Amino acid sequence: MAQQDTDQQHAGVLPVDDDGFVIDTQDTDERETAWRERGTSRPITVFGNPVLHRECKDVTEFGPELDRLVADMFASQRTAEGVGLAANQIGVDLKVFVYDCQDDEGVRHVGVVCNPKLVDLPADRRRLDDSNEGCLSVPTAYAPLARPDYAEVTGQDEKGNPIKVRGTGYFARCLQHETDHLYGYLYIDRLSKRERKDALRQMAENEPRYPVVAND
């Protein structure tokens, strides 16, 4: 494991592995709890809210206000029983997402990514997984969606330090799903017209299990 200098450790940066990717699998319960207990749960914005359908603004200021937002996002994610949450899902127009997600091996990953960008992988690394996908902003609806079963994201942590995150299986899906959100895409935007219509029907016919912001 690559070591970080004292200033980086003091800044709260996660350790990195030999390839420069954050190690987000250590002290997961303690880190998630610390964030969540400082935050206030907010209702989830749902399909149709304008903030979900446009690219969010870059995070340019890293400080107490961003920390409060991240804490609220972890609290909101726990209330909604989600595995990932983008800022626009609680109505905030900023490129930041949090995650608390297991991969297909059952390993838990917890972290924060600001200004994420998906790395364009070569074709030989794009084995597709067509598992079901759902979204807190399209409550109660699920549909199969083919995505690569490996993903890499570059961005910044909550202190503004550059980071790289990678994941496989379900966690890879989470990284792609949350990055999509911050560029104005929901997973149903990647479905066929028929599948999208069915997902919206599911949403209309069922009640969400967590507080949501009603669209006007």
Describe this structure in words.
The chain has 216 residues and is an alpha+beta fold. The chain contains five helices and eleven strands; from the N terminus they run ααβαβββββββββααβ. The protein has helices at residues 6-10, 28-38, 64-80, 169-182, 193-205; strands at residues 44-45, 84-86, 96-102, 108-118, 128-129, 132-135, 138-144, 147-148, 150-156, 162-168, 212-213. Strands 2-3-4-9-10 form a five-stranded antiparallel beta sheet, with helices on both faces. Strand 6 and strand 7 (138-144) form a beta hairpin. Helix 2 packs across helix 3. The longest helix has 17 residues, at 64-80.
Keywords:
alpha+beta; 11 strands; five-stranded antiparallel beta sheet; about 30% helix; two-stranded parallel ribbon; about 220 residues
The assembly state of the depicted protein chains is single chain
Mean pLDDT: 93
* Tally of DSSP helical segments: 5
> Beta-strand level of the residues, as a percent range?
25-35%
What's the order of the H and E elements? HHEHEEEEEEEEEHHE
Topology:
Elements: H1 6-10, H2 28-38, E1 44-45, H3 64-80, E2 84-86, E3 96-102, E4 108-118, E5 128-129, E6 132-135, E7 138-144, E8 147-148, E9 150-156, E10 162-168, H4 169-182, H5 193-205, E11 212-213
Parallel strand pairs: 1-11
Antiparallel strand pairs: 2-3, 3-4, 4-9, 5-8, 6-7, 9-10
Short synopsis of the structure:
The chain is α+β, with helices and mostly antiparallel strands.
